[in-house]
Amino acid sequence: MSLNAAVAILLSLAAAQAAAERPWTDAGVKDGVMLAYRDDAELQAREVRAITELPFAADALAAVACDFTQYGSLVPGVQEARLIAGQPTGDHEVYLHYAPRYVVVAARDVVIRLERSGTPEGASQCRWSEVVGRVS
Fold this sequence. Notes:
Blueprint: E1 6-11, H1 16-21, E2 25-30, E3 33-40, E4 45-53, H2 58-65, H3 71-74, E5 78-86, E6 92-98, E7 108-118, E8 124-130
Antiparallel strand pairs: 1-4, 2-3, 3-4, 5-6, 6-7, 7-8
């Protein structure tokens, strides 16, 4: 894989099938990042897509961005991140306890299902969604 491989990180709160049926709305380009979004009325959530080219191997970037087990050291407010199914290098589920220092949202426990894949163009992508009703 080339150093300038495209990296696509998909932030998803909706089920993959339902998301595929909703079109993306272009939100422009900022600092070389192509932005788009789509809304999910049922979940009252917005899915955001950011695509850019970076001078790093896509696999190295995806390894960090798509490994929620490390979010306790990367994301302020994540007090616990524990692998509960699968492997961080592939599809997996992670339990997160999020309690921000400045109370913008209440502390919460959530299980996230993360799916990793690649595209024919060499981009790495990960999608994640909450596993509703499953808190370990």
